[in-house]
Amino acid sequence: MERFFVEGGSRLYGEVEVSGGKNAALKLIAAALLAPGRSVLHNVPRIKDVETMLAVLDGLGAKTEFSGNTLSIDASTVDSYTAPYDLVRQMRASIVVLGPLVARFGEAEVSAPGGCNLGLRKFNFHLDGLRALGAEVGLDHGFIEATAPRGLRGAEINFEYPSVTATENVMMAAVLARGTTIIENGAREPEVVALADFLNLMGASIYGAGTGRILIEGVDELSPVEYSVVGDRVEAGTFLMATAATGGDVTVKGVDPDHLKMELPKLREMGIDLTYVEGGIRVRVDDPGALGSVDVATLPFPGFATDLQAQMMVLLTQTSGAGIITENVYENRLQVAEELNRLDAGIDLFGGHRALVKGPKRLSGTIVQSPDLRGGAALVMAGLVAEGTTIVDGARHILRGYEGFEEKLTSLGATVALGSEPALQR
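RESULT FIELD:
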């Protein structure tokens, strides 16, 4: 079992470049299935989730090849429409191959998804959206089966909740449907906009991505293209908050500040010095204890990202005062608080989805268990400010979404190692 070994007490200084966005790259890889031929994606992160998605595509018969962070996908040879259980259960995002397969080939079979244990994350939005487009969709022994032998047709689809992956899945299906599709209450995340840009470059006609109303005019066919993945806003937010929690001066490159619409104002409200520089954001904090606390409620974009909630929880343990975190997206995401309390964070959970965080706290290093991808990153971040050594078990969760996490932190002056045995050196 791989673990992160973290020695606390070091401030972070320097410059770090974020990788391509995990949540953007995964959907662009799936979208490449829509066009026969070779699409090329640049700035693709070399992470576990991307490996899993490529294994799904390989299993479908596509040909994929990595060179550095450039990925080529040839979807001309797809000869299977079944995404197997052993892969899809590892990563819920695999469900987004459903829309492209049904749109291009008229059939798809995808295992009901797995992934991080963040609570009940319904996939009925995906199924209802495809049904509205004319597909016959059913569940059979844990598999989602969808067929549209006569093709899909445009429809108006109203989402009860602005699900990101459901918006993306329906959008990818609708680009090859006959007629016009309108998605109401669609997700507005930057990754949805990136996917729409990619599809439009392929020849689709999508309007309104980034708003709650997306209009899609179906086309007969799409062509393979070359595209660069947008920088990872969650990774950027993680480094910004880690710098603030430890005290330091770091320039985070490769991120668009507009992709952190709620997070950056919250950090400024705490008293954190943020400066926009060419291609990124500089964060400077002399004394984390001099920062003030804030209340945070997670919401779909442009609200505060649930993927940065755990990192904010760690930061609040180092600031003065008390802040309340309200988790509105995933009911199990506050479980990281139990692990942080093993470090003496003293976080109180109440109301089922709220956490009271008081600071500043002197955290003490110990062994903790990564509950999920973002919670694991937050525990590594907590280890940076804790006294002594912190061991974060379950590194596999973190490796799903962060490329070279320990290397980037080490380049900023942290003492972090990844392995099965301690390998820390001052």
